[in-house]
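Usage

Read records sequentially. Each one opens with the input sequence:
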Amino acid sequence: MTDFGEIPQRGLVLLGCGKMGSALLAGWLGQGLAPSAVHVIEPNPSEWLRGTGVGVNAALPAAPAIVLIAVKPQMMGAALPTIASMGGGGTLFVSIAAGTTIESFEAVFGDDSPIVRAMPNTPAAVGRGISAIIGNREATAAHLDLAETLLAAVGQVVRLEREGQMDAVTAVSGSGPAYVFHLIEALARAGEGEGLSPALAMQLAKATVGGAGALAEAAEESPAQLRVNVTSPNGTTQAALEVLMDEGAGLPPLMERAVAAAARRSRELARG
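and closes with the structure output:
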């Protein structure tokens, strides 16, 4: 049974319950958190949400143990005033909104409120996500532990040394699943070009990328060594890697430009 600290007694407010909020909520309930401890604010609640037994758009506790902010950045201005009065006390605020800085939340809740900024990613939907967290000056070790407990319901959690690293995290793991999905698309399309049916090419591409990712996580060897292991001299894999690893036109410079573009956009969003 997961230790949810004071949440069972004081409650948890979930602001926004879209795909990521729903994944987190399902994880908490699956780990034993009582539905009665959860209070959700969601303008368009799903049938699944209504059937969980949690409070939906009902009265909120005055001083919950935690408020988890899971609305999209463009909805933040309208959503935050509904919970602003909870700032300045013993409530921990955790945000999973991309591009919204701790300073922005301190302006709403007060800089004496403990705030943790987090960046999860979409594989959280299948319990295989990874989240990075960083707290403000008021966030204690216990606050970070509680935030990690909640986010660990949908995958791994890492802690950052400074908030400035969040832009790189956003560019690598936050946006990264989309890069992998596009890799699957491109690999399948290339297979079609070599004569495979679209369905077979997509099945092969999905299973190959998914299996390789699982192997990379499970193996003791580094991804570089795993690549070497599967590359026979003058074989088919080497022929492909000579294209992919080309220093001028291969995958490394392309990925560097893609990650740099995402990090740059993350910084722009943070500046408003």
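Summary fields computed downstream for this record:
- The longest strand covers residues 129-135.
- The chain has two domains: 7-163, 176-271.
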